[in-house]
């Protein structure tokens, strides 16, 4: 692999294998400590290795290799936690919408149609594309010629509006 030269690591280590072993151990400790789902640790450390190899030319001080690698691993663990949180929220909302449409009787479908009808046309279209037609965010963005981030934000706000409308309906009945 020849990732390190003799001058790149502290004298306490005798070989590149020892340095890489220590590096792996340190990154694994950081990742396990930071991750909510400990089973993801191996994947995160592997991704960190890829980043380190891709960005090794950006390391200014070779004696800072281990802290630099730990920082990369820590950031990737944070990203993994954030991704898990978004997946969990998304799965929950999809389950709610799937449950709603599968148990609706005709009069309930009319209520849903009424709620959707109160939304602005763009929001209604986005929600229908996402939850009725099952399109992915990037497919919706391409179809509507919008940035993916805009599509995600509008869908999020649209779901929030729908939830507010449902709560208001429940309070008035």
Question: How does this structure look, described?
Answer:
Helix content is 75%, strand content 0%. The protein has 173 residues and is mostly helical. It folds into 2 domains: 6-82, Rna Polymerase Sigma Factor, Chain: A; 104-172, Arc Repressor Mutant, subunit A (Orthogonal Bundle). The longest helix has 39 residues, at 65-103.
What is the fold's blueprint, element by element?
Blueprint: H1 16-34, H2 41-55, H3 65-103, H4 106-117, H5 121-132, H6 137-144, H7 148-172
Helix pairs in contact: 1-2, 1-3, 2-3, 5-7, 6-7
Domain RNA polymerase sigma-70 region: 24-85
Domain RNA polymerase sigma factor 70 region 4 type: 110-162
Protein name: RNA polymerase sigma factor
């Amino acid at each position: 692999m020849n990732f390190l030269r003799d001058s790149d690591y502290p004298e306490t280590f005798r070989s590149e294998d020892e340095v890489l072993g220590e590096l792996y151990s340190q990154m694994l400790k950081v990742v396990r400590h930071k991750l909510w789902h400990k089973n993801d640790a191996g994947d995160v450390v592997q991704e960190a290795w890829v980043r380190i190899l891709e960005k090794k030319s950006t390391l200014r001080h070779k004696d800072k290799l281990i802290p630099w690698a730990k920082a990369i691993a820590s950031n990737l663990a944070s990203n993994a936690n954030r991704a898990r949180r978004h997946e969990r929220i998304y799965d929950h909302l999809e389950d709610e919408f799937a449950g709603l449409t599968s148990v609706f009787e005709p009069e309930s479908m009319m209520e849903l149609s009424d709620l959707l009808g109160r939304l602005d046309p763009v929001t209604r279209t986005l929600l229908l594309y996402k939850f009725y037609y099952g399109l992915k965010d990037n497919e919706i963005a391409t179809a509507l010629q919008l940035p993916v981030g805009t599509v995600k934000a509008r869908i999020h706000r649209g779901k929030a509006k729908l939830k507010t409308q449902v709560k208001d309906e429940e309070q008035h009945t």
